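Hi team,

Below is the intake form for SDR family oxidoreductase from Wenyingzhuangia gilva. Please confirm the fields before the structure is written into the shared record.

FORM ID: S-0412
PROTEIN: SDR family oxidoreductase
ORGANISM: Wenyingzhuangia gilva
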Amino acid sequence: MKILITGTTGYIGLRLIPVLLENTVELVCCVRDLNRTPVAYLNHPKITFIEVDFLKKETLNNIPKNIDAAYYLIHSMSNSSTDFSNLEASCAKNFKDYINQTNCRQVIYLSGIVNAKTLSTHLSSRKKVETILASGTYALTTFRAGIIVGSGSASFEIIRDLVEKLPIMITPKWLNTLTQPIGIADVISFLSKGLLKSELYNNSYDIMGPETLTYKEMLLQFAHVRGFKRWIYTVPVMTPKLSSYWLYFVTSTSYPLAASLVNSMKVEIIGKKSDINQILNIHPIPYKKAVKNAFKIIEQNGTISSWKDAVNTPQLNDSLGKHINLPHFGCFKDVRHMTVIDEQKTLDKIWAIGGDNGWYYGNFLWKLRGYLDLLFGGVGLRRGRTHATEIQTGDALDFWRVIYANRNEKRLLLYAEMKTPGEAWLEFKIVKNELYQRAVFRPKGLLGRIYWYAVLPFHGFIFKGMIQNIIKP
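The structure came back. Fields below:
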């Protein structure tokens, strides 16, 4: 049995793969950039990775015709594109048109609960995608979920930030909106158990946990699990824009994602009951249990995927691989090299850089740069890293994006997602027992050149101290 997975490197896709592999299936996983192939599955005998961009019809020819079923997990919470809905519709249409030519019997689509009369921009787009997919010659099964609770999910991490940072919260009135959260493990169970179940063909099902809660109740229950006492007061005067800025500055979310979430959270959406739990023998766990399970994963450093790793930098949307080779012309550079004393420990330090581990020198200046980035609408340092000691291509790393990470080649390359008047790279590479540390900046116009010379004095001791501490045994 051959199963196609789209959205392979996304939050859901990365968690679905190991569950499907427990069965006797062969997976064909679509990635927009082969450089983002998950390291854990690079040489797996049951997985084939293919490069597909669903906005480019010609790349769909890489998909084999002899697939039995497919998962459609392509979606975004970004407001970065003014033509967001049309782009999602184009992806769905291209997918549908090509899958019609294959042996595919079933497509499983994970959508959002869309039972309200007034929908947010993103839920309206999900509904439009579902309509497009339903017009295919295969059978469509749609699972519609609300708030998904799990380590690394956007909703979980945002609630975590609010609860752990703010003992007292003055909040917008949409915190009284009702919702039905569901644990990530239950979502994966629905997706995996629904595979090629003929009784689910050409049907849609709302999947949700056993409770209906307000966002305020979710915050308070989260605080209870963590052993915190929190006071929350809602006010009617906070506009959607102010609400978005409130989330942006307090939590690790980007402003576009914050605006999307506020737009969605204002709408009360309650799922329709069905017999899907009985059909698949799934009994969703309560919200508090889902939160506790998420923290068990976090404590074991076992978070598989995170919303933070979604690429949202325009320069990187097409391919990370285009940025693997450092530019030379028209660039400013800070290049240093030192002899490595203990190669294994040096590599360990490089692979653990950023996040809670810091940058090994001048961390207060890195934090200051992060705060300045936030003021100008950037991501700041709040994203941290998904795993404390492991890293792979495509991961978010504070205000950097991992362009290339190959421990065998002893090379780590980062691309800046902070707000800068130009493009910036930071590379660590060990060659013949020498650690080379390269900072490269390609300025954009006069402002870019002024920026480089303005930060040059700080680079002088930050980069010197960083490489010295990295090679320390």
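SUMMARY LINE: The CA atoms of residues 149 and 291 lie 7 Å apart.

Thanks, M.
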